[in-house]
Specification:
By secondary structure, the protein is α+β, with helices and mostly antiparallel strands. It folds into 6 domains: 8-100, Phosphorylase Kinase, domain 1 (2-Layer Sandwich), CATH 3.30.200.20; 104-320, Orthogonal Bundle (Transferase(Phosphotransferase), domain 1); 387-450, Trypsin Inhibitor V, Chain A, CATH 3.30.10; 456-521, Trypsin Inhibitor V, Chain A (2-Layer Sandwich); 526-588, Trypsin Inhibitor V, Chain A; 594-660, Trypsin Inhibitor V, Chain A (2-Layer Sandwich). The strands form 11 sheets. It has a 6-stranded antiparallel β-sheet with strand order 1-2-3-4-6-5, covered by helices on one side. It has a 3-stranded antiparallel β-sheet with strand order 7-9-10. It is elongated, with a radius of gyration of 48 Å. The termini are far apart.
Length: 681
């Protein structure tokens, strides 16, 4: 009895819920117990684990992806094998790959409803793919299965390319075929050389990337068909339409990039992912691209060998296929058809598997022969039928277009549903199906779609400064809705009551019928600080409020000016400040201000006078005899450190100088005489 899958792989990886299933493998949510991180665990399906072909392919995927370390490629952390037992008790090695867990969704999910994504987003996604391919090609690996389902978009908007399951080295001469000669890849995204069963190179990945870009821009792939064979045949022989023929807002530069990527002859495509990425980046910046004009591909000559190979692979009836010849079957998914496994002739189980596989292959070949015979008959008949190019009537009036289409030999049909167009006037032809330049039989019905006018309009760039009434009229004249917001916006340049701002902003492109919200100016938020000198507090508060300012701190200072009147303010009069700013003031106490007598004794007279006068004091000077040099201050009245009112009188006593010599002589004479006389007595 088969053993259940172990809960842990390699004693390290916890296998949790199933999060994805493909033709070859199942993907589980996992947890790396050693590094404490969430991972994705991809395991080969048990029913395929005994097939050496699938095992080899699975291991090749691990090896290919593990060698790549790039932010736009899903990282591989580890690989291994889990040994299980089948129903017979036989041990089977089930290989697994431990990968980076990417939280998000695929591009396939993004476009599943057939809606095109915004142009900038499409460029960003494909740029990420090209960056990944540039790296993988530099490491000599061709992915071979670029498609929306293999491109992840993370929750934070990053692009991740995954599933290198059929990637092969650039040097591999059999890089298109499996051991069963089955073409690998998905029919909708196959390059012509893949469909023909030829060797592929890096340019095959660029073709597939071009298909993805086409689908992102338009919401549909370039080729559709009832079968994989029919689609593959179109990839080989038909020129794709331009994306702008499906959605008219796509610029010519993007048409050029897409059609160069989708060139039938790989020599005409971009030589590298880097070259294609450079052109895409130029588109994003509004610059010219290096790709040729889109209409130049209408005359592309297909390789003769390719044509023959395509007819052999896709159109040869069953009866024409020799029993010993290899078969080229187009796979509908990224998983190629299973090979007939080689086994021991003595092994009954192997014999049984071989018989079952042979039956399956026979039935598939029979189906392919039926489809191929039909395609062959159709293509053979087409060679005998005259085909002409559908005329370009985009931009013409309905009557003009009808006349040209019928004159060319086609049947006119008018699509009852109109389509918005920013480039085609209302009432004129927006698109045709088949598109202009397509080769079609005479009598083919050409379905014409008429433009309903622009899907978007440009707001006038002069709305700011208008009166509300004038702005409303300008908005409504464009088919837009007007809404005036009750809140106002301060503006130094727009007068009060005029339109100061709109949402969306003037000059923006908006959808027809959109509501435009307008905001009026409240005037400048900058005001001049008024002169508050001589005002009371209440008067100052009222004055400040009238201009949008507020009274701040009030400080009382000694002053002989009138009591309770403002004598100072901060900010000063005339200063420009924002509304709401506070202005501090100083008011008079009505008391004269006092000053302190400084230290002036010993100073020169002139210096002392100057210092005292600077304090608002009146100075008188008295010269007196002294031993100090002339002009030196001997004393001050009131004394130093005394506090006096401003304008008080202060008296300085200043030395005359020049008295020392005479006094000494007189004193000596008198003293000597007196002393001598007294001594005699």
């Amino acid at each position: 009895m088969a053993q259940p899958m172990a809960h842990r792989l390699a004693g390290r990886y916890e296998v949790r819920s199933l999060i994805g299933r493909g033709g070859m493998a199942e993907v589980h949510l996992g947890f790396d117990t050693r590094l404490s991180r969430v991972v994705a665990i991809k395991m080969l399906r048990r029913d395929l684990a005994q097939d050496s072909i699938f095992q080899a392919r699975f291991r090749r995927e691990a090896q290919s992806a593990a060698s790549l370390n790039h932010p736009n490629i899903v990282a591989v952390y580890d690989t291994g094998e889990e040994i299980i037992e089948d129903a017979t008790g036989r041990s089977i090695a089930v290989p697994y790959i431990v990968m980076e867990y990417v939280e998000g969704h695929t591009v396939k999910d993004l476009i599943s409803d057939g809606t095109a994504v915004p142009i900038n987003e499409a460029i960003e996604i494909v740029s990420g793919v090209l960056s990944a391919l540039q790296y993988s090609h530099a490491n000599h690996l061709v992915h071979r299965d670029i498609k929306p389902g293999n491109i992840m978009l993370t929750s934070d908007g990053k692009v991740k390319v995954m599933d290198f399951g059929i990637a092969r080295a650039l040097t591999d001469s059999q890089a298109t075929m499996t051991q069963t000669n089955a073409v690998v890849g998905t029919a909708q995204y196959l390059s012509p050389e893949q469909a023909r069963g030829e060797t592929v190179d890096a340019r095959s990945d660029l073709y597939s990337t071009g298909v993805v870009l086409f689908e992102l821009l338009t919401g549909r792939p370039p080729f559709k068909g009832d079968s994989a064979v029919a689609v593959a045949y179109q990839h080989v022989e038909q020129i794709p339409p331009t994306p702008s023929s499906i959605l008219s807002d796509i610029p010519d530069s993007l048409d050029r990039v897409v059609l160069k990527a989708l060139a039938k002859n790989r020599e005409d495509r971009y030589p590298s992912a880097a070259a294609m990425l450079a052109d895409l980046q130029r588109v994003a910046r509004g610059l010219d691209v290096g790709a040729p004009p889109a209409d130049s591909w209408a005359t592309e000559v297909l390789p003769a060998a390719g044509m023959a190979s395509a007819r052999t692979a896709a159109t040869t009836p069953m009866a024409a296929v020799p029993s010993h010849a290899p078969t080229a079957a187009i796979a509908a998914t990224s998983t190629s058809m299973p090979a007939v496994a080689t086994a021991d002739p003595d092994d009954e189980a192997s014999k049984s598997r071989k018989r079952r596989t042979a039956i399956i292959v026979f039935l598939l070949l029979a189906a392919l022969g039926i489809i191929g015979g039909s395609v062959w008959a159709l293509t053979r008949g087409a060679a005998e039928t005259e085909t002409i190019a559908v005329p370009n009537v985009v931009g013409l009036t309905q009557a003009e277009a009808k006349s040209q289409i019928e004159q060319a030999g086609f049947t006119w049909e008018l699509n009852p549903d109109k389509v918005a167009s920013d480039t085609v006037n209302e009432g004129s032809v927006a698109s045709t199906d088949p598109t202009a330049g397509t080769q079609a039989e005479k009598g083919t019905t050409v379905r014409v779609t008429i433009s309903s006018g622009p899907d978007s309009v440009t707001l006038p760039d002069n709305l700011v400064g208008m009166s509300p009434d004038d702005a409303r009229k300008a908005i409504e004249a464009l088919g837009l809705k007007w809404e005036l917001d009750s809140s106002k916006v301060a503006s130094d340049t727009v007068p009060e009551g005029k339109v100061a701002q709109t949402n969306p902003s003037p000059g923006s492109k908006v959808k027809a019928g959109q509501t435009i919200r307008a905001y009026l100016s409240s005037g400048s938020d900058q005001v001049d600080v008024p002169d508050l000198s001589g005002m009371t507090q209440d008067q100052a508060r009222s004055t400040l409020k009238s201009v949008g300012l507020e009274l701040g701190n009030v400080t009382s200072v000694d002053s002989e000016k009138e009591k309770d009147r403002i004598i100072e303010q901060d900010p000063a009069t005339g200063t420009k400040v924002k509304k709401g700013t506070t202005v501090g003031v100083s008011i008079s106490s009505g008391k004269p201000a006092q000053v302190e007598i400084p230290t002036v004794v010993g100073m020169d007279r002139d210096d002392a006078e100057a210092q005292l006068k600077a304090l608002g004091l009146t100075v008188t000077v008295e010269e007196v005899a002294g031993n100090q040099p002339a002009g030196q201050v001997l004393s001050v009245e009131p004394g130093e450190g005394s506090k006096v009112d401003k304008n008080s009188s202060v008296k300085l006593k200043v030395s005359k100088g020049g008295q020392t010599g005479n006094n000494g002589g007189n004193n000596n004479g008198n003293n000597n005489g007196n002393n001598n006389g007294n001594g005699g007595h």
